[in-house]
Specification:
297 residues; 14 strands; 2 domains; 60s Ribosomal Protein L30, Chain: A
């Protein structure tokens, strides 16, 4: 037998084996704790290793809602119909009347065939907390089978097992409770306003800077913070520039006191040279008395 022919047969054998393995039910053994958590102030994940298939993950970022991902180690080659089912655990009952369909979608191709948002992830995680086992049921790529004729033999089923879930879930909930108050997109640009002639930070501003400092100190990807100081046009050029600079330093000092690395800051004072509104009205001058802050990551 030629080497080339042998290689072709070997490849064909692997393809045939993959096709057989694909039509299967994937579930973690009951005696294995297959759930794990990763925690930070910005992101909480609750992941489930599924032997022979990949990883299922519940994920929540600061200031956002829960999401669910299913990752396939070998990827999926076709975008087939999928239903998400809330089902009783195998050891309880398999009665079809106890099954509840949560969603019907189409799988994506590639290594992340499932991405769920809105209510479905919450329904799935609640089912697990109650001792039930959500199922992700992929119809095989035979589009000729009518939907009402699809049986378990025509599906590939991923089961999220309850084994080890409760302990990991408790850690996940603790993480969610400790997420920072605001996501990065809401704090990457901020403007701090000041009373006429004042360099003092009011209580509302300090609360805002506290939240900003908490996020920055727990985000290792932040590499620069730009501060620019501004004033209205009341007063002379030099005094306005000095006031703008002092306001800018006040903001920096407060953030440093809250634990932000002083090496992250770049500062530039503009005095009254860059107004964002007319200095002819009190309302316009109030908008010009400001420190602008930009965070980069």
């Amino acid at each position: 037998m030629s080497i080339r022919y042998s290689v072709i047969l070997t490849c064909f054998a692997w393809i045939s084996l993959a096709s057989v393995a694909w039509a299967d039910t994937y579930k973690s053994p009951i005696d294995k704790d297959a759930w794990s958590t990763e925690s930070s102030k910005r992101l909480c994940t609750l992941s489930h290793a599924i032997p022979g298939y990949g990883v299922a993950t519940f994920s929540q970022k600061a200031g956002t809602t829960l999401e669910f991902f299913l990752e396939a180690s070998l990827g999926r080659r076709s975008a087939t119909p999928v239903i998400i089912v809330d089902a009783p655990a195998d050891w309880k009952t398999t009665a079809s009347s106890n099954r509840k369909q949560l969603a019907e979608i189409k799988a994506a191709t590639g290594k992340r065939p499932i991405h769920l948002t809105k209510m479905t992830p919450y329904q799935m995680i609640s089912a697990l907390a109650e001792g039930r086992e959500p199922r992700i049921e992929f119809q095989r790529s035979n589009d000729s089978i009518p939907k009402n004729k699809v049986t378990s033999k025509d599906k590939d089923i991923i089961i999220l097992a309850t084994s080890g879930f409760q302990n990991a879930y408790k850690k996940y909930l603790t993480c969610v409770d400790e997420l920072v108050a605001y996501p990065f997109d809401t704090i990457k640009k901020s403007t701090i306003y000041f009373e006429s002639g004042s360099k003092a930070l009011d209580e509302e501003t300090m609360i805002k800077l506290d939240a900003l400092a908490e996020h920055i100190t727990h985000d290792e990807n932040v590499y620069r913070i730009d501060l620019t100081g501004h004033s209205d046009s009341k007063g002379g050029y030099m005094s306005n520039r000095q006031t703008a600079n002092e306001r800018m330093w006040k903001v920096k000092d407060y953030l440093v006191y809250q634990g932000v690395d002083p090496e992250l800051f770049t500062l530039k004072g503009f005095g009254d040279r860059m107004p964002v509104a007319s200095n002819k009205t009190a309302e316009g001058r109030a908008k010009n008395r400001r420190v602008e802050l930009k965070v980069f990551r």
